[in-house]
Amino acid sequence: MPTLKRTYSQALRHAVIILVGVAMIYPVLWLLASSFKTNQTIFTDTGLWPHSFTLDNYRNGWKGFQGVSFSRFFGNSALISVLSVLGNVVTCSLAAYAFARLEFKFKKVWFALMLVTIMLPYHVTLVPQYIIFSELHWINTYYPLFLPKWLAHDSFFILLMVQFIRGIPRELDESATIDGCGQGKLYLRIILPLLAPALITTAIFTFIWSWDDFFSQMIYLSDIKLFTVQLGIRALFDPSGSSDWGALLAISVLSLLPITLIFLVFQRYFLDGIATTGLK
Amino acid sequence: MRTSRRPPIHTHNRTAYAFLLPWLIGFFCLTLGPMLGSLYLSLTKYNLLRSPQWIGFANFKQIFTDDATFTHSLKLTFTYVLLSVPLRLVFALLVALALNKGIRALGIYRTVYYIPSLLGGSVAISIVWRQIFDSEGIVNAFLGWFGIDGPAWIAHPDYLIYPIVTLSVWQFGSAMVIFLAGLKQIPADLYEASQVDGAGKIRQFFRISLPMLSPVLFFNLIMSIINSFQAFTPAYVIGDGHGGPLDASMFYTLYLYLKGFSYFDMGYASALAWIMLLIIAAFTGIVFATSRYWVFYGDSKEGR
Protein backbone atom coordinates (compact mmCIF):
# COMPACT_ATOMS: atom_id res chain seq x y z
CA MET A 1 0.00 0.00 0.00
CA PRO A 2 2.16 2.86 -1.23
CA THR A 3 -0.03 5.74 -0.01
CA LEU A 4 -0.17 4.48 3.56
CA LYS A 5 3.54 3.94 3.52
CA ARG A 6 4.06 7.46 2.26
CA THR A 7 1.86 9.01 4.97
CA TYR A 8 3.72 6.96 7.52
CA SER A 9 7.16 8.09 6.38
CA GLN A 10 5.87 11.65 6.01
CA ALA A 11 4.70 11.63 9.63
CA LEU A 12 7.98 10.14 10.78
CA ARG A 13 9.92 12.81 8.95
CA HIS A 14 7.78 15.53 10.52
CA ALA A 15 8.26 14.02 13.94
CA VAL A 16 12.05 13.93 13.55
CA ILE A 17 12.18 17.48 12.23
CA ILE A 18 10.03 18.77 15.09
CA LEU A 19 12.03 16.85 17.67
CA VAL A 20 15.34 18.17 16.39
CA GLY A 21 13.80 21.64 16.23
CA VAL A 22 12.75 21.49 19.87
CA ALA A 23 16.22 20.34 20.87
CA MET A 24 17.71 23.20 18.87
CA ILE A 25 15.56 25.86 20.44
CA TYR A 26 15.65 24.41 23.95
CA PRO A 27 18.74 26.33 25.18
CA VAL A 28 17.08 29.58 24.15
CA LEU A 29 13.84 28.65 25.90
CA TRP A 30 15.80 27.57 28.98
CA LEU A 31 17.48 30.98 29.04
CA LEU A 32 14.16 32.78 28.72
CA ALA A 33 12.43 30.69 31.39
CA SER A 34 15.32 30.82 33.84
CA SER A 35 15.48 34.59 33.63
CA PHE A 36 12.09 34.68 35.40
CA LYS A 37 13.03 32.24 38.14
CA THR A 38 14.40 33.22 41.51
CA ASN A 39 18.08 32.64 42.08
CA GLN A 40 17.35 29.72 44.40
CA THR A 41 15.24 27.87 41.87
CA ILE A 42 17.18 28.39 38.61
CA PHE A 43 19.22 25.23 39.05
CA THR A 44 16.76 23.18 41.05
CA ASP A 45 13.63 23.83 39.02
CA THR A 46 14.66 22.29 35.71
CA GLY A 47 11.25 22.55 34.06
CA LEU A 48 10.67 25.30 31.52
CA TRP A 49 7.73 26.93 33.27
CA PRO A 50 8.88 28.97 36.28
CA HIS A 51 7.01 27.96 39.44
CA SER A 52 8.04 31.11 41.21
CA PHE A 53 7.71 33.86 38.66
CA THR A 54 9.74 37.00 39.38
CA LEU A 55 10.92 40.12 37.59
CA ASP A 56 13.59 40.86 40.20
CA ASN A 57 16.34 39.48 37.97
CA TYR A 58 15.60 42.11 35.37
CA ARG A 59 15.51 44.85 37.98
CA ASN A 60 18.76 43.70 39.59
CA GLY A 61 20.54 43.09 36.33
CA TRP A 62 19.59 46.41 34.80
CA LYS A 63 21.27 48.22 37.73
CA GLY A 64 24.61 47.13 36.27
CA PHE A 65 27.72 47.50 38.42
CA GLN A 66 30.00 50.18 39.81
CA GLY A 67 27.26 52.74 39.43
CA VAL A 68 26.83 52.27 35.70
CA SER A 69 23.53 50.78 34.60
CA PHE A 70 22.77 48.68 31.58
CA SER A 71 20.82 51.49 29.95
CA ARG A 72 24.22 53.05 29.37
CA PHE A 73 25.70 49.83 27.97
CA PHE A 74 22.76 49.37 25.65
CA GLY A 75 23.05 52.97 24.48
CA ASN A 76 26.76 52.51 23.80
CA SER A 77 26.24 49.31 21.85
CA ALA A 78 23.45 50.89 19.84
CA LEU A 79 25.61 53.90 19.01
CA ILE A 80 28.51 51.75 17.80
CA SER A 81 26.25 49.49 15.79
CA VAL A 82 24.36 52.33 14.10
CA LEU A 83 27.57 54.16 13.17
CA SER A 84 28.97 50.91 11.80
CA VAL A 85 25.85 50.23 9.77
CA LEU A 86 25.90 53.70 8.20
CA GLY A 87 29.59 53.37 7.38
CA ASN A 88 29.25 50.02 5.68
CA VAL A 89 26.17 51.01 3.71
CA VAL A 90 27.74 54.20 2.39
CA THR A 91 31.32 53.21 1.66
CA CYS A 92 30.76 49.62 0.53
CA SER A 93 28.13 50.76 -1.95
CA LEU A 94 30.48 53.43 -3.31
CA ALA A 95 33.23 50.89 -3.86
CA ALA A 96 30.80 48.36 -5.27
CA TYR A 97 29.50 50.88 -7.78
CA ALA A 98 33.01 51.53 -9.05
CA PHE A 99 33.78 47.81 -9.37
CA ALA A 100 30.49 46.91 -10.99
CA ARG A 101 29.91 49.81 -13.35
CA LEU A 102 33.03 51.85 -14.03
CA GLU A 103 36.06 51.07 -16.16
CA PHE A 104 39.37 52.22 -14.75
CA LYS A 105 43.05 51.42 -14.62
CA PHE A 106 44.13 48.46 -12.49
CA LYS A 107 40.51 47.53 -11.84
CA LYS A 108 41.27 43.80 -12.01
CA VAL A 109 44.14 44.14 -9.55
CA TRP A 110 42.06 46.05 -7.01
CA PHE A 111 39.18 43.67 -7.41
CA ALA A 112 41.42 40.65 -6.82
CA LEU A 113 42.93 42.29 -3.74
CA MET A 114 39.45 43.05 -2.46
CA LEU A 115 38.51 39.37 -2.81
CA VAL A 116 41.64 38.29 -0.96
CA THR A 117 40.90 40.58 1.98
CA ILE A 118 37.60 38.76 2.52
CA MET A 119 39.50 35.63 3.48
CA LEU A 120 42.15 37.36 5.56
CA PRO A 121 42.02 36.54 9.28
CA TYR A 122 41.55 39.58 11.43
CA HIS A 123 44.48 38.71 13.66
CA VAL A 124 47.18 39.28 11.08
CA THR A 125 46.44 43.01 11.13
CA LEU A 126 45.43 43.16 14.78
CA VAL A 127 48.62 44.27 16.50
CA PRO A 128 49.64 47.05 14.07
CA GLN A 129 46.04 48.30 13.99
CA TYR A 130 46.12 48.47 17.75
CA ILE A 131 49.39 50.38 17.63
CA ILE A 132 48.01 52.84 15.06
CA PHE A 133 44.88 53.46 17.09
CA SER A 134 46.83 53.85 20.30
CA GLU A 135 49.23 56.31 18.62
CA LEU A 136 46.14 58.31 17.63
CA HIS A 137 45.02 58.17 21.30
CA TRP A 138 41.90 56.32 20.26
CA ILE A 139 42.06 53.62 22.92
CA ASN A 140 38.92 53.94 25.02
CA THR A 141 37.06 55.65 22.20
CA TYR A 142 34.70 54.12 19.67
CA TYR A 143 36.75 55.10 16.61
CA PRO A 144 38.61 51.78 16.35
CA LEU A 145 35.26 50.01 16.38
CA PHE A 146 33.32 51.95 13.76
CA LEU A 147 35.90 53.86 11.72
CA PRO A 148 37.00 50.77 9.74
CA LYS A 149 33.40 50.47 8.53
CA TRP A 150 33.65 53.97 7.09
CA LEU A 151 36.64 52.75 5.10
CA ALA A 152 34.74 49.82 3.56
CA HIS A 153 36.86 47.42 5.59
CA ASP A 154 34.24 44.63 5.47
CA SER A 155 34.89 43.82 1.85
CA PHE A 156 32.45 40.94 2.01
CA PHE A 157 29.64 43.43 1.58
CA ILE A 158 31.35 45.03 -1.40
CA LEU A 159 31.26 41.68 -3.15
CA LEU A 160 27.62 41.20 -2.20
CA MET A 161 26.72 44.57 -3.71
CA VAL A 162 28.88 44.12 -6.80
CA GLN A 163 27.00 40.95 -7.58
CA PHE A 164 23.71 42.67 -7.00
CA ILE A 165 24.54 45.69 -9.16
CA ARG A 166 25.65 43.41 -12.00
CA GLY A 167 22.09 42.12 -12.04
CA ILE A 168 20.63 45.60 -12.61
CA PRO A 169 20.04 46.13 -16.36
CA ARG A 170 22.56 48.48 -17.93
CA GLU A 171 19.84 49.96 -20.11
CA LEU A 172 18.71 51.97 -17.08
CA ASP A 173 22.16 53.56 -16.78
CA GLU A 174 22.35 54.23 -20.46
CA SER A 175 19.02 56.01 -20.69
CA ALA A 176 19.87 58.05 -17.61
CA THR A 177 23.21 58.99 -19.16
CA ILE A 178 21.42 60.17 -22.28
CA ASP A 179 19.21 62.28 -20.02
CA GLY A 180 22.39 63.92 -18.77
CA CYS A 181 23.04 62.12 -15.51
CA GLY A 182 26.68 62.02 -14.39
CA GLN A 183 28.16 59.07 -12.47
CA GLY A 184 27.33 60.64 -9.13
CA LYS A 185 23.68 61.09 -10.00
CA LEU A 186 23.55 57.65 -11.58
CA TYR A 187 24.78 56.12 -8.36
CA LEU A 188 22.40 58.13 -6.19
CA ARG A 189 19.27 58.10 -8.34
CA ILE A 190 19.39 54.80 -10.21
CA ILE A 191 21.65 52.31 -8.48
CA LEU A 192 21.13 53.05 -4.78
CA PRO A 193 17.33 52.70 -4.84
CA LEU A 194 17.53 49.45 -6.80
CA LEU A 195 20.28 48.22 -4.50
CA ALA A 196 17.97 48.50 -1.47
CA PRO A 197 17.66 44.76 -0.75
CA ALA A 198 21.45 44.33 -0.69
CA LEU A 199 21.79 47.46 1.44
CA ILE A 200 19.28 46.09 3.94
CA THR A 201 21.10 42.75 4.07
CA THR A 202 24.35 44.61 4.67
CA ALA A 203 22.75 46.78 7.33
CA ILE A 204 21.29 43.93 9.37
CA PHE A 205 24.40 41.78 9.28
CA THR A 206 26.63 44.73 10.13
CA PHE A 207 24.34 45.56 13.02
CA ILE A 208 24.45 42.02 14.41
CA TRP A 209 28.18 41.60 13.96
CA SER A 210 28.94 44.93 15.62
CA TRP A 211 26.50 44.15 18.42
CA ASP A 212 28.22 40.80 19.05
CA ASP A 213 31.78 41.91 18.35
CA PHE A 214 33.14 40.98 21.75
CA PHE A 215 36.80 40.65 20.76
CA SER A 216 37.45 44.18 19.43
CA GLN A 217 35.33 45.77 22.13
CA MET A 218 37.34 43.99 24.78
CA ILE A 219 40.63 45.07 23.26
CA TYR A 220 39.79 48.71 22.76
CA LEU A 221 37.49 49.51 25.70
CA SER A 222 38.44 49.34 29.36
CA ASP A 223 36.59 52.36 30.76
CA ILE A 224 33.36 51.10 32.31
CA LYS A 225 31.38 54.11 31.15
CA LEU A 226 32.19 53.12 27.57
CA PHE A 227 31.34 49.45 28.03
CA THR A 228 29.03 47.72 25.58
CA VAL A 229 26.36 45.16 26.36
CA GLN A 230 28.70 42.25 25.60
CA LEU A 231 31.40 43.64 27.88
CA GLY A 232 28.82 44.37 30.56
CA ILE A 233 27.57 40.79 30.52
CA ARG A 234 31.08 39.40 30.61
CA ALA A 235 31.91 41.66 33.56
CA LEU A 236 28.77 40.57 35.40
CA PHE A 237 29.76 36.97 34.87
CA ASP A 238 32.32 35.46 37.18
CA PRO A 239 33.72 32.17 35.85
CA SER A 240 34.71 31.04 39.33
CA GLY A 241 31.04 30.64 40.11
CA SER A 242 29.75 33.40 42.37
CA SER A 243 27.70 35.24 39.74
CA ASP A 244 24.18 36.50 40.34
CA TRP A 245 22.84 34.03 37.79
CA GLY A 246 19.32 35.39 37.72
CA ALA A 247 20.47 38.90 36.84
CA LEU A 248 23.02 37.56 34.39
CA LEU A 249 20.45 35.52 32.51
CA ALA A 250 17.93 38.37 32.51
CA ILE A 251 20.45 40.72 30.94
CA SER A 252 21.44 37.98 28.50
CA VAL A 253 17.82 37.79 27.35
CA LEU A 254 17.72 41.55 26.87
CA SER A 255 21.02 41.51 24.98
CA LEU A 256 19.58 39.07 22.45
CA LEU A 257 16.36 41.04 22.04
CA PRO A 258 17.48 43.68 19.50
CA ILE A 259 18.98 41.03 17.21
CA THR A 260 15.90 38.84 17.47
CA LEU A 261 13.57 41.74 16.70
CA ILE A 262 15.59 42.74 13.65
CA PHE A 263 15.53 39.14 12.49
CA LEU A 264 11.78 38.84 12.85
CA VAL A 265 11.11 42.11 11.03
CA PHE A 266 13.58 41.56 8.20
CA GLN A 267 13.39 37.79 7.97
CA ARG A 268 13.01 37.76 4.23
CA TYR A 269 16.17 39.80 3.65
CA PHE A 270 18.06 37.63 6.07
CA LEU A 271 17.27 34.33 4.52
CA ASP A 272 17.60 35.63 0.97
CA GLY A 273 20.87 37.32 1.83
CA ILE A 274 22.30 34.14 3.30
CA ALA A 275 21.03 32.01 0.47
CA THR A 276 22.49 34.15 -2.28
CA THR A 277 25.82 35.03 -0.72
CA GLY A 278 26.60 32.58 2.04
CA LEU A 279 26.71 35.10 4.87
CA LYS A 280 27.00 33.57 8.28
CA MET B 1 23.12 34.42 -17.98
CA ARG B 2 23.30 38.04 -18.88
CA THR B 3 25.91 39.24 -21.28
CA SER B 4 26.97 42.57 -19.85
CA ARG B 5 30.53 42.25 -21.10
CA ARG B 6 30.91 44.73 -23.85
CA PRO B 7 33.79 47.01 -24.76
CA PRO B 8 33.88 49.98 -22.39
CA ILE B 9 32.69 53.18 -23.95
CA HIS B 10 34.61 55.37 -21.56
CA THR B 11 37.07 54.85 -18.84
CA HIS B 12 36.37 56.98 -15.80
CA ASN B 13 39.63 56.88 -13.93
CA ARG B 14 39.08 59.93 -11.82
CA THR B 15 35.44 59.28 -10.94
CA ALA B 16 36.15 55.64 -10.25
CA TYR B 17 39.00 56.37 -7.89
CA ALA B 18 36.83 58.92 -6.10
CA PHE B 19 34.24 56.18 -5.51
CA LEU B 20 36.96 53.80 -4.40
CA LEU B 21 38.72 56.29 -2.14
CA PRO B 22 37.36 55.12 1.25
CA TRP B 23 38.10 51.51 0.38
CA LEU B 24 41.58 52.37 -0.87
CA ILE B 25 42.42 54.26 2.31
CA GLY B 26 41.13 51.33 4.32
CA PHE B 27 43.05 48.85 2.21
CA PHE B 28 46.36 50.61 2.70
CA CYS B 29 45.94 51.82 6.28
CA LEU B 30 43.98 48.95 7.81
CA THR B 31 44.99 45.93 5.74
CA LEU B 32 48.17 46.12 3.68
CA GLY B 33 50.12 48.44 5.97
CA PRO B 34 49.26 46.54 9.16
CA MET B 35 49.98 43.21 7.43
CA LEU B 36 53.49 44.32 6.56
CA GLY B 37 53.73 45.89 9.98
CA SER B 38 52.93 42.65 11.74
CA LEU B 39 55.37 40.80 9.51
CA TYR B 40 58.06 43.22 10.63
CA LEU B 41 56.99 43.06 14.28
CA SER B 42 57.10 39.27 14.16
CA LEU B 43 60.87 39.62 13.74
CA THR B 44 61.20 41.91 16.73
CA LYS B 45 60.71 42.07 20.45
CA TYR B 46 58.09 44.70 21.14
CA ASN B 47 56.05 45.56 24.21
CA LEU B 48 54.33 48.78 23.10
CA LEU B 49 56.40 50.94 25.46
CA ARG B 50 59.86 50.69 24.00
CA SER B 51 60.57 50.72 20.29
CA PRO B 52 60.76 47.34 18.51
CA GLN B 53 64.03 45.52 18.88
CA TRP B 54 65.16 43.41 15.90
CA ILE B 55 65.71 39.77 16.86
CA GLY B 56 65.42 38.03 13.49
CA PHE B 57 63.67 34.68 13.55
CA ALA B 58 64.02 34.22 17.30
CA ASN B 59 60.25 34.42 17.87
CA PHE B 60 59.58 31.74 15.29
CA LYS B 61 62.39 29.61 16.59
CA GLN B 62 60.97 29.78 20.08
CA ILE B 63 57.44 29.06 18.86
CA PHE B 64 58.44 25.95 16.98
CA THR B 65 61.03 24.53 19.32
CA ASP B 66 60.29 25.75 22.80
CA ASP B 67 56.64 26.59 23.29
CA ALA B 68 54.45 23.79 24.58
CA THR B 69 51.42 26.09 24.81
CA PHE B 70 51.69 26.86 21.11
CA THR B 71 51.75 23.18 20.18
CA HIS B 72 48.89 22.48 22.52
CA SER B 73 46.73 25.37 21.31
CA LEU B 74 47.36 24.43 17.70
CA LYS B 75 46.31 20.84 18.37
CA LEU B 76 43.24 22.02 20.23
CA THR B 77 42.24 24.36 17.44
CA PHE B 78 42.78 21.64 14.82
CA THR B 79 40.60 19.30 16.83
CA TYR B 80 37.94 21.97 17.02
CA VAL B 81 38.04 22.71 13.29
CA LEU B 82 38.17 19.07 12.22
CA LEU B 83 35.25 18.15 14.49
CA SER B 84 33.00 21.16 14.13
CA VAL B 85 33.25 21.96 10.42
CA PRO B 86 32.32 18.50 9.03
CA LEU B 87 29.67 17.92 11.71
CA ARG B 88 28.08 21.28 11.09
CA LEU B 89 27.99 20.78 7.33
CA VAL B 90 26.66 17.21 7.55
CA PHE B 91 23.90 18.30 9.91
CA ALA B 92 23.05 21.24 7.68
CA LEU B 93 22.89 18.98 4.64
CA LEU B 94 20.76 16.31 6.30
CA VAL B 95 18.23 18.77 7.67
CA ALA B 96 18.14 20.66 4.38
CA LEU B 97 17.37 17.40 2.56
CA ALA B 98 14.61 16.58 5.03
CA LEU B 99 13.10 20.04 4.68
CA ASN B 100 13.41 20.14 0.92
CA LYS B 101 10.73 17.56 0.15
CA GLY B 102 7.91 20.09 -0.02
CA ILE B 103 7.17 19.99 3.66
CA ARG B 104 4.32 22.01 5.16
CA ALA B 105 5.21 25.07 7.25
CA LEU B 106 8.72 25.13 5.84
CA GLY B 107 9.07 28.79 6.79
CA ILE B 108 8.59 28.08 10.50
CA TYR B 109 11.10 25.24 10.54
CA ARG B 110 13.60 27.30 8.63
CA THR B 111 13.23 30.10 11.17
CA VAL B 112 13.57 27.80 14.17
CA TYR B 113 16.66 26.15 12.74
CA TYR B 114 18.17 29.47 11.85
CA ILE B 115 17.77 31.13 15.26
CA PRO B 116 20.87 29.44 16.78
CA SER B 117 23.04 30.89 14.01
CA LEU B 118 21.55 34.27 14.74
CA LEU B 119 22.19 34.21 18.49
CA GLY B 120 25.14 31.84 18.80
CA GLY B 121 27.89 34.44 18.42
CA SER B 122 26.90 36.39 21.52
CA VAL B 123 28.46 36.28 24.95
CA ALA B 124 25.00 35.51 26.35
CA ILE B 125 24.71 32.17 24.59
CA SER B 126 28.23 31.16 25.58
CA ILE B 127 27.23 31.77 29.18
CA VAL B 128 24.07 29.71 28.70
CA TRP B 129 26.25 26.96 27.26
CA ARG B 130 28.44 26.94 30.32
CA GLN B 131 25.37 26.46 32.41
CA ILE B 132 23.55 23.77 30.45
CA PHE B 133 26.75 21.72 30.19
CA ASP B 134 27.45 22.10 33.88
CA SER B 135 27.79 18.78 35.68
CA GLU B 136 24.34 19.47 37.21
CA GLY B 137 23.02 21.04 34.00
CA ILE B 138 20.27 19.97 31.64
CA VAL B 139 22.55 18.04 29.28
CA ASN B 140 23.54 15.66 32.03
CA ALA B 141 19.96 15.54 33.28
CA PHE B 142 18.96 14.44 29.78
CA LEU B 143 21.75 11.85 29.61
CA GLY B 144 20.57 10.66 33.03
CA TRP B 145 17.24 9.55 31.53
CA PHE B 146 19.18 6.99 29.53
CA GLY B 147 21.20 5.92 32.53
CA ILE B 148 24.31 7.72 31.33
CA ASP B 149 26.32 9.46 34.01
CA GLY B 150 27.57 12.53 32.15
CA PRO B 151 30.96 14.00 33.05
CA ALA B 152 31.68 17.51 34.29
CA TRP B 153 31.85 18.97 30.79
CA ILE B 154 33.04 22.40 31.84
CA ALA B 155 35.21 21.70 34.87
CA HIS B 156 37.10 18.70 33.50
CA PRO B 157 39.82 19.65 30.99
CA ASP B 158 39.35 16.46 28.93
CA TYR B 159 35.74 17.28 28.10
CA LEU B 160 35.65 21.05 27.68
CA ILE B 161 36.20 20.85 23.92
CA TYR B 162 32.88 19.06 23.43
CA PRO B 163 30.58 21.85 24.65
CA ILE B 164 32.55 24.27 22.47
CA VAL B 165 32.21 22.02 19.42
CA THR B 166 28.53 21.51 20.17
CA LEU B 167 27.99 25.24 20.27
CA SER B 168 29.46 25.51 16.79
CA VAL B 169 27.50 22.57 15.40
CA TRP B 170 24.34 23.96 16.99
CA GLN B 171 24.67 26.90 14.61
CA PHE B 172 24.27 24.81 11.47
CA GLY B 173 21.21 26.82 10.42
CA SER B 174 22.99 29.33 8.20
CA ALA B 175 24.68 26.57 6.20
CA MET B 176 21.33 24.79 6.01
CA VAL B 177 19.66 27.85 4.50
CA ILE B 178 22.36 27.97 1.85
CA PHE B 179 21.94 24.26 1.10
CA LEU B 180 18.16 24.67 0.88
CA ALA B 181 18.60 27.41 -1.69
CA GLY B 182 21.03 25.21 -3.59
CA LEU B 183 18.66 22.25 -3.57
CA LYS B 184 15.88 24.44 -4.96
CA GLN B 185 18.09 25.18 -7.97
CA ILE B 186 18.39 21.56 -9.01
CA PRO B 187 16.03 20.90 -11.95
CA ALA B 188 13.29 18.42 -11.05
CA ASP B 189 13.60 16.61 -14.37
CA LEU B 190 16.99 15.26 -13.32
CA TYR B 191 15.28 13.34 -10.54
CA GLU B 192 12.42 12.27 -12.79
CA ALA B 193 14.77 10.97 -15.44
CA SER B 194 16.83 9.04 -12.93
CA GLN B 195 13.68 7.61 -11.41
CA VAL B 196 12.68 6.29 -14.83
CA ASP B 197 16.11 4.69 -15.05
CA GLY B 198 15.40 2.99 -11.73
CA ALA B 199 17.66 4.93 -9.40
CA GLY B 200 16.80 4.77 -5.70
CA LYS B 201 16.81 7.63 -3.19
CA ILE B 202 20.35 6.98 -1.99
CA ARG B 203 21.69 6.74 -5.52
CA GLN B 204 19.88 9.95 -6.43
CA PHE B 205 21.50 11.69 -3.51
CA PHE B 206 25.02 10.65 -4.46
CA ARG B 207 24.59 11.01 -8.21
CA ILE B 208 22.43 14.14 -8.42
CA SER B 209 21.98 16.15 -5.21
CA LEU B 210 25.55 15.95 -3.98
CA PRO B 211 27.30 16.82 -7.27
CA MET B 212 24.81 19.61 -7.97
CA LEU B 213 25.35 21.00 -4.49
CA SER B 214 29.12 20.70 -4.61
CA PRO B 215 29.81 24.36 -5.55
CA VAL B 216 27.73 25.48 -2.57
CA LEU B 217 29.39 22.91 -0.36
CA PHE B 218 32.79 24.10 -1.53
CA PHE B 219 32.03 27.70 -0.65
CA ASN B 220 30.61 26.71 2.74
CA LEU B 221 33.62 24.56 3.51
CA ILE B 222 36.08 27.36 2.80
CA MET B 223 34.21 29.93 4.86
CA SER B 224 33.62 27.52 7.75
CA ILE B 225 37.29 26.59 7.92
CA ILE B 226 38.38 30.22 7.91
CA ASN B 227 35.83 31.19 10.55
CA SER B 228 36.46 28.19 12.79
CA PHE B 229 40.16 28.87 13.02
CA GLN B 230 39.30 32.31 14.34
CA ALA B 231 36.81 31.20 17.00
CA PHE B 232 37.34 33.21 20.14
CA THR B 233 34.25 34.14 22.16
CA PRO B 234 33.17 30.55 23.00
CA ALA B 235 36.66 29.58 24.14
CA TYR B 236 37.01 32.76 26.15
CA VAL B 237 33.62 32.65 27.87
CA ILE B 238 33.04 28.89 28.22
CA GLY B 239 36.59 28.52 29.49
CA ASP B 240 37.78 30.81 32.24
CA GLY B 241 39.24 33.49 29.98
CA HIS B 242 42.84 32.49 30.62
CA GLY B 243 42.77 29.26 28.66
CA GLY B 244 41.92 27.14 31.68
CA PRO B 245 41.09 24.75 33.17
CA LEU B 246 44.58 23.36 32.46
CA ASP B 247 44.75 25.02 29.03
CA ALA B 248 41.69 23.10 27.88
CA SER B 249 40.20 26.27 26.36
CA MET B 250 43.50 27.64 25.07
CA PHE B 251 42.40 28.12 21.48
CA TYR B 252 44.92 29.58 19.09
CA THR B 253 43.26 33.00 18.97
CA LEU B 254 43.01 33.09 22.75
CA TYR B 255 46.71 32.30 23.09
CA LEU B 256 47.49 35.03 20.59
CA TYR B 257 45.31 37.47 22.50
CA LEU B 258 46.89 36.63 25.83
CA LYS B 259 50.41 36.93 24.42
CA GLY B 260 49.68 40.27 22.80
CA PHE B 261 47.33 41.92 25.21
CA SER B 262 47.98 40.36 28.62
CA TYR B 263 51.75 39.87 28.43
CA PHE B 264 52.20 42.64 25.84
CA ASP B 265 54.62 40.48 23.90
CA MET B 266 53.41 41.96 20.65
CA GLY B 267 56.25 40.74 18.46
CA TYR B 268 55.49 37.20 19.54
CA ALA B 269 51.77 37.72 18.99
CA SER B 270 52.48 38.98 15.47
CA ALA B 271 54.55 35.90 14.74
CA LEU B 272 51.64 33.76 15.96
CA ALA B 273 49.28 35.71 13.71
CA TRP B 274 51.43 35.10 10.63
CA ILE B 275 51.68 31.40 11.39
CA MET B 276 47.90 31.36 11.68
CA LEU B 277 47.56 33.12 8.33
CA LEU B 278 49.83 30.56 6.67
CA ILE B 279 47.93 27.66 8.22
CA ILE B 280 44.59 29.02 7.07
CA ALA B 281 46.04 29.71 3.62
CA ALA B 282 47.36 26.14 3.47
CA PHE B 283 43.98 24.67 4.43
CA THR B 284 42.15 26.86 1.94
CA GLY B 285 44.75 25.99 -0.68
CA ILE B 286 44.23 22.27 -0.12
CA VAL B 287 40.47 22.63 -0.46
CA PHE B 288 40.93 24.67 -3.63
CA ALA B 289 43.42 22.19 -5.07
CA THR B 290 41.16 19.21 -4.46
CA SER B 291 38.09 21.05 -5.67
CA ARG B 292 38.52 20.03 -9.29
CA TYR B 293 38.02 16.42 -8.28
CA TRP B 294 34.80 16.94 -6.43
CA VAL B 295 33.23 20.28 -7.34
CA PHE B 296 31.02 20.14 -10.42
CA TYR B 297 29.83 23.23 -12.15
CA GLY B 298 26.60 22.75 -14.04
CA ASP B 299 27.82 24.00 -17.38
CA SER B 300 30.76 21.64 -17.71
CA LYS B 301 30.08 18.21 -19.09
CA GLU B 302 31.22 15.87 -16.40
CA GLY B 303 31.86 12.62 -18.22
CA ARG B 304 31.12 9.28 -16.66
Can you describe this structure?
The complex is a heterodimer of chains A (280) and B (304). With 280 residues, chain A is an all-alpha fold. Chain A folds into two domains: 2-61; 72-277, MetI-like (MetI-like fold). Helix content of chain A is 71%, strand content 0%. Chain A is built from 14 helices and no strands. In chain A, helix 3 runs antiparallel to helix 10 (196-212) and helix 4 packs across helix 7 (155-166). Chain A is globular, with a radius of gyration of 24 Å. Chain A starts with a helix and ends with a helix. By secondary structure, chain B is mostly helical. Chain B has a single domain, classed as MetI-like fold (Orthogonal Bundle), CATH 1.10.3720. Chain B is built from 13 helices and two strands; from the N terminus they run αββαααααααααααα. Chain B has helices at 13-41, 58-65, 68-100, 106-119, 123-132, 138-145, 161-170, 173-185, 188-196, 201-229, 233-238, 252-261, 266-294, and strands at 44-45, 53-54. A two-stranded antiparallel ribbon of chain B has the order 1-2. In chain B, strand 1 (44-45) and strand 2 (53-54) form a beta hairpin. In chain B, helix 3 (68-100) packs across helix 8 and helix 12 packs antiparallel against helix 13 (266-294). Chain B is globular. Chain B starts with 12 loop residues before the first helix and ends in a 10-residue tail after the last helix. The interface between A and B is large, with 92 and 97 residues.
